[in-house]
Amino acid sequence: MKAAVNQKLTEMGERDRLKELLRAKLTECGWKDQMKAHCKEVIKQKGLEHVTVEDLVVEITPKGRALVPDSVKKELLHRIRAFLAQHTK
Fold it and tell me: What is the pTM of this model?
């Protein structure tokens, strides 16, 4: 089911539109700046020479997900549901 929804979103170009909306909303609410600051803090704590990109991703992902405002999640979910209602019958 998830694969079918993803395929439909991709085929119709809606996936890219949703990604752009998400980027804009996250920048607008300050999420991007918060994550940038968190990355700098992690690098500062561990030392630049001791952090790989993979380590950084593992370290910041939980906080990144937690910091996404509920309003942004709800808006994306609403748009996905509306898209599916309109394009699947």
Answer: 0.82
